Amino acid sequence: MDRVAFYDTKPYDKIWFDRLCGDYGIDIKYIEGRLCEDTAALANGCRAAVIFVNDKLDAKTAKALERNGVGCVALRCAGYNNVDLSGAAGLKLYRVPAYSPAAVAEHAMALLLTLNRKTHKAYNRTKEHNFSLKGLCGFDLNGKTAGVVGTGKVGQAFVRICRGFGMRVIAYDPYPSRIPGVEYMPLYDVCRQSDIISLHCPLTSDTHHMLDGRAFSMMRRGVYIINTSRGALIDSEELLDAIKDGKVGGAGLDVYEEEIDFFYEDVSDEVIDDDTLEMLLSQPNVLVTSHQAFLTKEALRAIAEDTLYNLRCFFDGTPSENEIKPGANAKA
Ligand code: NAD
Asked: Domain limits at 117?
């Protein structure tokens, strides 16, 4: 059995990894803590490490892993903005590029529908026998314009859902695809014409704060913003200003640029030392979920299968199409 160190373990991670690891000849050492330079030593005795979105693989951590005999890091997620690719050049790196694009796209629509039709408020009200409709008015999605930023696997799944709702779909992507019913245009035109904007592109130096004060200033008054990709695509303080100003009518955020300190943990008995997050959470038209768009049974199984396959490829010295090669995945 080849032993691997599995960082940032949550109970739902274990369900499929435990069921399938034997089939791949892999023995898993589960570690609750996140990967960082200090926790790299916990991988001692393992030739590979498995990490998730908020584990940090910077140059120092990569070197610390290598000193402990680790030769490979398998990400059990699609995005790899948490990896310093040149700093980790001594390690083989893998990811799971597509475990369930539908899961993420469906969560994006769930955020939009909840925010718009206020079902979260209605749920609380009727539980308390308050059957008033005051403040619950939404708008028809049918006939509205959805602006999709990034039309890869998740973006295309979201396009299909929007089209099913009878929406006009416009999009921005520097690498456009041929998608029936989608009109591509520059990002700022998407900002100008959309009633809702949903982000589905990776976080890179080009996309960092792509929705900034200038982008918000161009948007329609009352626009809804949905982000299930990465928090730092949006300048959160500018978003807060746009919400207070009424420019943004609603924001559904599954990700937040400083989420690493809070998301996936129960910090309900602690003071949140992040005024922007607190202010966002306190707005009635902001809905935050804790980076859970991926969390479906189907996606968890696919994540386990593909991660174990990547690890097997590493141990056997065979190629995996999921290897992350610096510069090779410009679209990822
Ligand atoms: P993908 O690689 O299939 O598609 C990404 C698309 O973004 C590509 O079409 C690419 O051309 C485009 N793109 C690249 N640079 C861009 C730019 N500057 N502006 C606009 N578009 C640009 O990825 P995917 O599987 O569709 O996933 C999209 C993102 O969703 C991932 O990068 C990841 O950050 C996020 N994600 C989040 C969760 C979650 O649980 N919240 C789960 C999975 C993925």
From this structure: 101-288
